[in-house]
Specification:
mainly beta; 508 residues; 38 strands; 7 helices; single chain; twelve-stranded mixed sheet; 33% strand; elongated
Length: 508
């Protein structure tokens, strides 16, 4: 905006003949003092009844300013002129298009997810080739919309995906700590959102939805429905990558990965991928952020995945990296300390969470992120509660399927595994961890700790059908009314004291 004002200084000299009588009286009064007096006489704000007069005052001030020498110009403070010009520019912008939009708000009644239909007046999201800022209020997407540059969320923003819409956030949606994004669907699974994190010049990636680069933590993210595809940005060279949904990558080689804010998913078809491998482009993430949760760091600590709650929908979350990987859902990876997966709660839905590392240490499918190697290296802990739904969790190298990130021991120091604290009160859970690992004896548990952990895992399996590396057990008294295809070569045991009843079908 300063460039805009300064670029028209010479042209504004012609405006002197158009200025009102009060302005013409100042002609011939060149120098610093008359200009400073004119600036002091400017009003505090721009209003409808004074806009034309303020514009004329600014034109006159800038015309006189253009007659000064460069030394004299440096003594003039034009900040008030800039502020008023910005207000004038904003007043000239076209009013945003608003529309009354119906949407579904989700809630949990203690046993299932329910929806209530509501209506809100929203600003319609439009195509943009430039960066966009969403401020406090309600926004709605209709039709096909593409925003080429980052979208920044300020304060509390609510976004409705109308039926059949397709929003592409080509460089992600930045939701930093202290701000919040709540996503609704017009109907169950209505609308699509594709968000891909961006990469800065240092090779660090922001989240698809969540924190930006420079270790920015994400704010609160709530998803009530829709089809959400969020991919983390690529981390080039030695940079950390952001989560698919959650925290951003480290802003420097030695910075920390960004923590996620509270992420709540009520429904929708959601695919979230952390930093990805792409050898052809030479932008493989050295260490990756979680699919949903914390971002990663090249040399320091991965970001935590905090307060991640899933009520329903179909959620697929994956993390992958050239070296250490973050959790599918939970903490991000790092070369020293993996991020924790704190307070991850699943009430329902169909959840598939996978951590995949090309080498080194993996994160849990659900839980802690992978750490590096050395005397202080440690993977993240995982605190997870599952009360329902169908959950498939696949851990990375040395990591638990559900629980702590991976760990191993070798002559170079290895990595201490993360501790798992897992409670299962219902649902069907299929947890697995790699058994064929390079450093023999340090495979992570399907549910519990990552390999080489020093603390004792806390695992409570009260109710549910639970598979651990293909061995299934009915825990407690389970009533099953749905259908589930048991994978080939799996077994299912009903021990003394447990029962399995209902009208459901187990096939396979």
């Amino acid at each position: 905006m300063k460039k805009r004002i300064l670029s028209i200084i010479t042209a504004l000299a012609l405006c002197l003949s158009l200025c009102p009588t009060w302005a013409l009286a100042a002609e011939g009064e060149g120098g610093l003092c008359p200009i400073e007096d004119l600036i002091a006489a400017l009003p505090d704000t721009v209003m409808e009844d004074n806009a034309d007069n303020v514009r004329a005052q600014l034109d006159h001030i800038l015309a006189l300013y253009g007659e000064l020498s460069w030394e004299e110009q440096e003594q003039i403070d034009l900040s008030r002129c800039y502020e008023l010009q910005e207000a004038l520019d904003g007043a000239n912008d076209p009013d945003p298009i608003t529309e009354s939009v119906e949407y579904q708000e989700a809630s949990w009644d203690g046993s299932q997810v329910t929806y209530e239909s509501k209506t809100e007046t929203c600003t319609l999201v439009e195509n943009s080739a430039e960066a966009v800022t969403w401020t406090t209020g309600w926004y709605a997407v209709s039709g096909t919309v593409t925003i080429d540059q980052p979208i920044t969320v300020t304060d509390a923003v609510n976004l409705i995906l109308t039926d059949g819409c397709d929003l592409t956030a080509a460089k992600g949606i930045v939701v930093t700590d202290g701000n919040s994004l709540t996503i609704y669907a017009q109907s169950e699974n209505g609308g699509t959102l594709n968000a891909t994190g961006t990469t800065d010049d240092s090779g660090n990636a922001s989240a698809g939805i969540g924190g930006g680069t420079s270790s920015l933590a994400s704010g609160s993210i709530t998803i009530h429905g829709g089809v959400i595809n969020a991919a983390g940005g690529y981390g080039k060279n030695m940079g950390g990558s952001g989560a698919g949904i959650g925290g951003g990558g480290s802003g420097s080689i030695d910075g920390d990965g960004g923590d996620s804010g509270a992420i709540t998913i009520f429904d929708g078809v959601i695919t979230a991928v952390g930093g990805e491998l792409d050898y052809d482009k030479q932008i493989a993430a050295y260490h990756s952020g979680a699919g949903i949760g914390g971002g990663s760091s090249r040399n320091n600590s991965g970001g935590a995945g905090n307060l991640i709650t899933i009520y329903g929908g179909t959620v697929t979350a994956k993390s992958q990296a050239y070296h250490n990987s973050g959790a599918g859902i939970g903490g991000g990876a790092a070369n020293k300390k993996g991020g924790a997966g704190n307070s991850i709660v699943i009430y329902g839905g169909t959840i598939t969470a996978t951590s995949d590392s090309d080498s080194s240490v993996g994160g849990a499918g659900i839980g802690g992120g992978g750490g590096g190697s050395g005397s202080v290296a440690k993977s993240g802990d995982g605190t997870v509660t599952i009360s329902g739904g169908t959950v498939t969790a696949v851990g990375g190298n040395y990591a638990a399927g559900i629980g702590g990130g991976g760990g191993y021991q070798n002559t170079y120091g290895g990595c201490t595994g993360g501790t798992g604290s897992v409670t299962i009160n219902g649902g069907i859970v299929d947890a697995s961890s790699p058994t064929d690992v390079y450093w023999t004896g340090y495979a992570g548990a399907p549910i519990g700790n990552g390999g080489n952990a020093t603390a004792t895992a806390t695992v409570n399996k009260t109710t549910g059908i639970i598979f651990e590396n293909g061995v299934g057990t009915v825990c407690g008294n389970v009533t099953f009314d749905g259908s589930y295809p048991v994978p080939a070569d799996y077994t299912l045991n009903i021990p003394v004291g447990a029962s399995l009843s209902g009208s459901g079908t187990l096939s396979g």
